[in-house]
Amino acid sequence: SFYIKTPYSREVVAMSVLEMHANILDTLLQNRAPQQLPGGVNLILTILFSLLTIYVVLNVRPLKGIGILAGAFLAFILATYILFALGWWMPMAHSLIAIFVCYYFFIPYRLIMENRRSWEYQQKNRLLTQVEELKSNFLRMMSHDLRTPLARIQGMANVVLSDNNPLSDTQRRAVETIYRSSEELSNFIGSVLNLGRIESKDIKLHLRSRDINSLVRDVVKKCEFLARKRGIEIRMELEPMFSFKIDEDLIRQVLTNLIENAIKYSPDNGKILVTSEEVEGEAILQVADQGMGIPQEDLPHVFEKFYRSRNARGSTVSGSGLGLYLVKYFVELHHGKVDVESEPSKGSTFSITLPMVMDTQTRARSREGVQYV
Prior knowledge:
This protein has 373 residues and is of the alpha/beta class. Helix content is 58%, strand content 16%.
């Protein structure tokens, strides 16, 4: 009973009662007791902590907000201990209680606002989904309805061009223009239909073993007529490869889009190089042209939907901005990738990389909505 514990030692005999009273008297005589900070400081700190808590609760994400408040809490406690060591002390309870009280008073309001915002997002999302479905249905319906009269126009133009009765130069050019325009419109309608299938996730991969080089030759042969009209030479350097599984229709459209783009954007009497090779179990196809090229700032966006580079927009070449988007989508369905290298006024090179083996694990990582047949 003659000893007490001290703030610096929790031992039972840390300090005698007589020594404690001697220290008290010495502190009073020497006037060395810690001084209390002015009351206004405590009030200001309490208000600041209250405002900080309200702001964090209402505007900051929950996890980050808790981190901020915990940091402020610990920083305040550390600051009070440092001040006490320097001879000043201040009440801690007011500021700490302000944090807890403001947090628990305003967190229900935050939850109410979050729930209301979530409900509004759900309503907007439901409305947008309905609008998207209506748009897709409208595009599919219009595309199908347009294809029938368009096929008649193409058929009639073809009949006139193949008729034995001679046509004047003006008439022949007019009919050829009609046929070309109808063919461009048909390609655009096909792209719109494919876009609708992509957005509705209605694309199925029909994988069959095919010779990719044979497919390249077929596509080049189909595009040679368009190239000859402008004096463009299409060269092929195809490395022999084993057949592997692809969706022939989708890859055919990929190659057609790339080669037709190369023809459209190449100068008259230019050259196009189409190559294929096998590298480490992957088939790499490249289409290189000598056209206008693509500016560097446009390269990251050329595969986006409805995007056309500034060079293309400023030229007389028509386009929908869907071709390269479909190329990227169809290649990625095969778990491949497509890249482009280009310099303005020097041409562009598009590279397609396709895996020659698609195992079960690869299929399992396929994007949502894709079915394999």
